[in-house]
Amino acid sequence: MAPITEVEGRRVALSNLEKVLYPATGFTKAEVLHYYATVAGVLLPHLRDRPVSFLRYPDGPDGQVFFTKNVPPGTPEWVTTAEVPRSDGPARMVLVQDLPSLMWAANLVTEFHTPQWVAPAPAEADRLVFDLDPGPPATVVQCCEVALWLRERLAADGIGACAKTSGAKGLHLLAGVRGASSERVSEYAKTLAVEAERALPRLVVHRMTRSLRPGKVFVDWSQNAARKTTATPYTLRARPEPAVSAPVTWEEVADCGSPEQLVFRAGDLAPRLTDYGDLLSALFDGDAAGRLPPA
Q1: Backbone φ and ψ of 273, nearest 5°
Q2: Distance, C-alpha 244 to centroid of its chain
Q3: Bridge-based pairing state of the strands 91-94 and 81-84
């Protein structure tokens, strides 16, 4: 039987704590849970009220990896859920609202993926996202060049952007927005991706077509669609090492000269939080959220 621990008055079963999930470093499930407890203060605001899609890897990244969108079997009754409309009919999904539900979800061994809207209004976006994905031999270094161009372009429209690593190969740009539908944000993001390709034709591609992507950065604007999700800030990723989708400063983006400079692992986050706090905190400032220009 899994040991039971009490988290803020809730009983949470934690299983297989000594199991090694990241063989390259010997990082165990207990360390995964410790990591999420350490970053809970900054992670939870990015999860709150957003239906979570779990990318589960219970036997580590080399084992079975699968998405779970509906409420998993055995979910405690105290975990908050919400009915979410989908094209194939409404579904009930988990909302990770507090530390107990975060620890319960982390025990499932998961990447957290969230949409650019809060329940129960998928048609109304409050965030804009670009996923910058490098096609080898391009790396995150080239993603940083594109990110700086997009930052200036967004600023020209009065929209402030923040950056984070994807936790894999690329970079994510996020911005707070208001007064726009998910459909309108998608249209706007596509317009900027096309502009980026025209301005940086040797560096950027805005279409997903694989044959176009070698050596270029794919500016994925499509994750603004209401049905899409993006790796949540501070989530661990199912990679060979316990890599994190970590917020970064614009100075770090501008100074990036090698891919390793923007690789952050679980153990790196506590000192970064001491130094910087949540570098994405501007996303919660409703007064600072940008309004998209008219279509």
Answers
A1: -65, -35
A2: 9
A3: antiparallel
* Helix-, strand-, coil-residue percentages of the chain, each rounded to 5: 30, 25, 45
Q: What is the DSSP string of 107-145?
A: TT-EEEEE-SS-TT-TTEEEEEEEEEEEPTT--HHHHHH
Residue the block writes with tokens 């620890």 = 103
- φ, ψ at 4 (rounded to 5°): -105, 130
On whether the CB atoms of residues 177 and 292 are closer than 8 A, the answer is yes
Q: Is 250 exposed, middle or buried (0-12, 13-18, 19+ CB in 10 A)?
A: middle
| Banded model confidence at residue 4, pLDDT cuts 50, 70, 90 | confident
Q: Strand, coil or helix: what is 221?
A: coil
For residue 176, the SS3 value is strand
- What is the 8-class DSSP label of residue 253? H
* Among 258, 67, 238, residue whose Cα is nearest residue 168: 238
C-alpha distance from residue 23 to each of 106, 187, 221, 269 (Å)? 18, 42, 34, 20
**pLDDT for residue 1:** 62
d(CA 135, CA 170): 10
Opening angle at CA 166, ends 163 and 171, nearest 5: 50
In this prediction the pTM is 0.96
Predicted local distance difference test score (pLDDT) of residue 271:
97
Element (H, E) at 68: strand 66-68
- Give the list of residues 6+ apart from residue 260 with CB closer than 8 angstroms, or none: none
Strands 4-7, 10-13: pairing is antiparallel
Q: How far apart are CA 55 and CA 92, in angstroms?
A: 17
